[in-house]
Amino acid sequence: MEIDEDKIDDAVLALLWLTLHDERCAWKGFDWTTTNRLHEKGLICDPANKSKSLVLTDEGLRRSEELFRRLFAR
Question: What's the pLDDT score for residue 26?
Answer without folding.
Answer: 94
